[in-house]
Design goal:
Blueprint (H helix, E strand, L loop, with lengths): L2 H13 L5 E4 L2 E4 L4 E2 L7 E2 L5 E4 L4 E8 L4 H9 L6 E10 L2 E12 L2 E12 L4 E10 L8 H9 L2 E2 L4 H6 L3 E3 L6 E6 L3 E5 L11 E8 L8 H10 L4 E13 L2 E11 L5 E11 L2 E9 L4 H13 L1 E3 L1
Antiparallel strand pairs: 1-2, 3-11, 4-5, 5-6, 6-10, 7-8, 8-9, 9-10, 12-20, 13-14, 14-15, 15-19, 16-17, 17-18, 18-19
């Protein structure tokens, strides 16, 4: 594989490491994943990564659930020369929910020949790219044959985003959503909640809740840290109105209120709260139009105060 493709794959594998699957309509789905399949033979849910494994035979099926925007780069990498992958074959591959690109070949890992199948597929209407990698050591090919693996890959299927499962993967709990609807979850770091139907964040109030690391230990450094974080939002012409240290749920915090323009140039009001815990922090950003701002600010604050770390 090209080095960047392999590095990207390994990074995503770690980032999406999960714990246990759920089952639906004959397919198994890793917790929080929109992508599933029917794992063959002795493959069981992995507790180390998103997918399935036969620990005794060292067989692994890794499933990565990525945004649709990831597809072009992965497709280019998959169709390029695969350094380290021998006997490479690329083909169009049909499965239960569509057609993807299947790359097969073999690699030598620590003196052991390992057969690989890499299936890449996308569902733009679901903002989804599926990357499924299967690894079978040569000694297990008599059991996990090419026909068996291909049959499993043809069962690849998609489901709607399992919001409840994904929320359970976050390092915090939303105790009171204050009437906001969870629109999207980004395990393991955060979620977007919106006030109304659909997903148009330029037309509806919304809240972004996330957790991060790298917070300054010195209180004197927190104002600049908070301003830098606010500047990283997809807003323009941010004009701060106030910036104050405060306590949030008995923890040190910092609040910034500001005016800004949204991605489409719409005027908005913004509040950002940071709640510090050592070098970690919880960040809450509430964005809404000026109309009904006072009522919305109260709801933003209710959501903030209902957050608890797991």
């Amino acid at each position: 594989m090209p080095h960047r493709f392999l590095a990207y794959f390994v990074t995503l594998l770690i980032a999406f490491a999960l714990q246990a699957p759920t089952f639906a309509a004959g397919a198994a789905f890793p917790t929080g994943s929109r992508i599933g399949l029917e794992p063959p033979l002795d493959l069981k849910p992995s507790t180390r990564f998103s997918g399935f494994e036969d620990i005794d035979r060292k067989v692994a099926v890794t499933i990565l659930d990525l945004p649709a925007a990831a597809y072009p780069g992965l497709d280019h990498a998959a169709t390029s020369e695969q350094h380290g992958l021998n006997d490479v074959k690329r083909e169009s591959f049909g499965f239960s929910s569509g057609t993807g690109l299947l790359v097969t070949g073999s690699i030598n890992a620590g003196g052991v020949t390992v057969r690989k199948w890499i299936l890449l597929a996308t569902a733009p209407d679901k903002d989804l790219t599926a990357l499924v990698s299967v690894e079978v050591p040569e000694a297990a090919l008599a059991i996990y044959s090419d026909a068996i693996i291909r049959k499993a890959l043809t069962s690849l299927t998609f489901r709607a985003a399992p919001i409840a499962e994904q929320l359970g993967m976050l390092p915090f709990k939303i105790g009171d959503s204050a009437g906001f609807r969870v629109m999207k979850v980004f395990p393991p770091s955060g979620a977007i909640l919106i006030d109304g139907p659909g997903a148009d964040m330029s037309a509806q109030p919304y809240v972004i809740v996330s957790i991060g690391r790298g917070a300054p230990e010195r209180p004197d450094d927190r104002p600049r840290f908070a301003r830098d974080l606010l500047a990283s939002t997809p807003l323009h012409d941010i004009l701060m109105q106030s910036a104050d240290a405060m306590r949030i749920n008995n923890a040190p915090g910092f609040e910034i209120r500001a005016q800004a323009q949204g991605p489409k140039g719409e005027p908005v009001m913004v509040v950002q709260w940071l709640r510090f815990a050592g070098d970690s922090y919880v960040r809450i950003v509430g964005v809404a139009g000026k109309q009904d701002w006072d009522a919305l600010f109260t709801r933003f604050r209710t959501l903030r105060d209902g957050l608890d770390l797991r």
